[in-house]
Amino acid sequence: MASKFQSRLVGTIVLVAIGVIVLPDVLDGKKAHYKEEFASIPIKPELESNVEIFEVIEPIEDDIALPDSPVEQTVESSVESSKQASVDEVAVVEKAIPERNEYQESAWIIQLMALKNADNAKNVVKDLQKRGYQAHTKQEKSFTRVIVGPDVSKSKLERQVKELEKITGSKGQLLKFKPLNP
Predict the structure, then answer these.
(1) How far apart are CA 163 and CA 113, in angstroms?
(2) What gap in Å lies between CA 76 and CA 90, rounded to an integer?
(3) Short-list 160, 152, 151, CA closest to 112
(4) How far is it, in rounded angstroms, from Cα 107 to Cα 18?
(5) pLDDT 10s per residue in the chain (182 long)?
(6) Which of the chain's ends, N or C, has fewer CB atoms near its CB within 10 Å?
(7) Residue 162 included in any domain
(8) Strand 71-79 with 144-151, pairing
(9) d(CA 173, CA 113)
(10) CATH number (domain holding residue 141)
(11) Left, alpha or beta for 27 (phi > 0: left; psi -120 to 50: alpha)?
(12) Which residues are bridge partners to 115 per DSSP?
């Protein structure tokens, strides 16, 4: 009986082995193999001999100096009597033009406070900057001013004056910002 059992066991093992090896290939059908396509880098093309060559010219140094202050020059010419019609006199008149600040009324600042101790002013500025304000110090002779701004929106700064009064306890003053003479 052992021989029948052994032959059945061997037969079962063979059938299972064939099933494990052959059946997956039969059931999968035709396999699709994917092949990656590579694009080759083209070789550097040879350039034609008619390549344009540009010559770099050195800059010319002029001995002309700019005037110290803005000056308007006007030329007046007058012709004297008919006897001297061929002779023209040319007079150059120099007029100093006052400097104008075109942005004089375009921005505003809040002058918050003036402190004698510069360290205290810097601490106030750091605290205001942490809270999101654009705060600065301006050193004067014996004191340091705390300034918020500049900003082009006057209404925004007016609202900030009220907020800053709650934060610092001092009422700020809204002033026009003069960028050339702060």
Answers:
(1) 14
(2) 6
(3) 160
(4) 90
(5) 578 999 999 999 999 999 999 888 778 777 677 777 777 777 877 766 666 677 888 877 777 766 665 544 444 444 444 444 444 445 555 555 555 545 455 788 898 888 899 899 999 999 999 999 889 898 888 899 999 888 888 888 888 888 888 888 888 888 888 776 65
(6) N
(7) yes
(8) unpaired
(9) 9
(10) 3.30.70.1070
(11) alpha
(12) 144
Strand order of the β-sheet with 173-176 is: 135-139, 144-151, 108-115, 173-176
Whether 49 is covered by a domain: the verdict is: no
In this structure, are strands 144-151 and 173-176 parallel, antiparallel, or unpaired? unpaired
- Assess contact for 137 and 113: CB atoms under 8 A: no
3-state secondary structure of 64: coil
Domain contains 129: yes
Write the single-letter amino acid at 125. Answer: V
Please indicate, yes or no, if residue 27 is contained in any of the structural domains: no
Tally of domains within the chain? 1
Angle among Cα 56, 61, 64 to the nearest 5 degrees reads: 150
**Do the Cβ atoms of 173 and 110 come closer than 8 Å?**
yes
pTM over 0.85: no
145 DSSP β-pair partners: 114, 138
CB 144 within 8 A of CB 137: yes
Q: Which domain holds residue 155?
A: 108-176
- 176 pairs with which residues across the strands? 108
Backbone angles phi, psi at 135, to 5 degrees: -105, 145
